[in-house]
User: What shape does this take?
Amino acid sequence: MTSIIIFSKNNKMKYVSSIIKEKTYSDIIEIKDLERKSGFLGRFKNNYNALRSNKTRIEPETITLNDYDLILIGSPSTFGSVSPAISTFIEKNTFKNKNVIIYTTTNSRQGYEVLRQMKNKIEEKGGTIVNSFILRVNNKSDDEIKINTIKVIKELDLDLYT
Assistant: This one.
């Protein structure tokens, strides 16, 4: 059984993950950031928290991962950093003996740092990263994002993992 765990700040991550769910017959669990702010100053604070790797209050805090053979974790890139919600989720959970695929959506070329940060944190918690990918979503229509997501699923043979 496969689980997709995401945080989505602008629904691009949610859209990409729904396509992956459809193609891999997975469950999606969305992490909510209970301290995320809106408005100009709120976005500034959210970005600052991501850059500083600050933690946040999330819901759910923990997920029983025992039932899953494979876990996909998706975080949008925030100035090249993992979202505080996903950082907090990783910190509060264990991934011992779990195979994990990590991915990010980004509007720039900063996705590699997000993947590096996630990889390090998950491996510290006992997980094994078996694959990773970046989807660039800037100035892309939903149809283009869908085509690119399906292309990545095929290129990485994600169906073999599930």
